[in-house]
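queue> pop job 88
queue> type: inverse folding (structure -> sequence)
queue> payload:
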């Protein structure tokens, strides 16, 4: 019996070995760096050439140079040979090349983490190397995927998951917004828009406390986009419009009618 089990396990490993090797296969690409206005911050672009289709996939991020092992001295030098390493749960990215006054480029190798890929596959994600580059750069972890899933979004598309991570959407934010808009079904696109415009539960509650009857996410988005907050509502009321509706607030703000805080003692 033990022999049979051992033989079965050996045969399974034999058939899985090529798959694991393929999953762990490294891919190469090119990178460029350009300095940003803030000292020490660089725009790092990484591009993978898909040899099968001839397409190019680029991922660009503003990042502290010292976070990837490039020093300020290397950025300031007239010419310098540099190397960097970015280690994430998804993969390791190792690059080398040259810089001149903070700008330059070279080549990099992306080495996938086999166990991470297996965990992704187990959660329904089939990630190509170009996608894995984005996942690694934005630092998506299995713990993060599970956190978002437990908050009510277990089957996000990869692009939505990357958008969530890039915008800082976490489980606490999701739960707060779903509680805030308990009567609405928040889809992933709405959550992305709400986070992008910095709509929080506190923002919505502060307007509700000021008498604004916000019930839907799109209402909060309209108000936030126009810069309408609790202080603006109070200024509107101070000008004689008591308990303004959302439509009134939107029209007033769009026409820029109420712009000043009324002076103390003014009639």
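queue> result:
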């Amino acid at each position: 019996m033990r022999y049979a089990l051992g033989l079965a396990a050996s045969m399974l490993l034999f058939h899985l070995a090529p798959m694991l090797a393929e999953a762990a296969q490294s891919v190469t690409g090119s990178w460029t760096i350009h300095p940003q206005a803030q000292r020490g911050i660089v725009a790092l672009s990484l591009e993978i050439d898909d040899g099968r289709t001839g397409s190019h996939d680029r991922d660009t991020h503003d990042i502290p140079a010292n976070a990837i092992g490039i020093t300020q001295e290397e950025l300031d030098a007239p010419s310098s040979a540099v190397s960097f390493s970015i280690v994430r749960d998804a993969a390791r990215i190792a690059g080398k090349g040259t810089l001149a006054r903070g700008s330059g480029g070279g080549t990099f190798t992306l080495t996938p983490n086999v166990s991470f890929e297996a965990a992704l596959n187990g959660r329904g994600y089939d990630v190509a190397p170009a996608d894995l580059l984005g996942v690694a750069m934005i630092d998506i972890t299995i713990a993060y995927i599970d956190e978002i899933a437990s908050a009510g979004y277990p089957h996000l598309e990869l692009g939505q998951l990357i958008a969530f991570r890039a915008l800082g959407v976490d489980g606490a934010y999701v739960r707060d917004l779903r509680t805030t808009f308990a009567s609405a079904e928040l889809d992933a696109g709405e959550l992305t828009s709400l986070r992008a415009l910095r709509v929080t539960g506190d923002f919505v509650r502060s307007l509700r406390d000021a008498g604004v009857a916000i019930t839907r996410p799109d209402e909060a988005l309209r108000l936030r986009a126009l810069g309408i907050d609790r202080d603006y509502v109070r200024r509107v009321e101070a000008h004689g419009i008591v308990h303004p509706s959302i439509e009134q607030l939107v029209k007033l703000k769009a026409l820029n009618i109420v712009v000043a805080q009324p002076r103390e003692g003014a009639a």
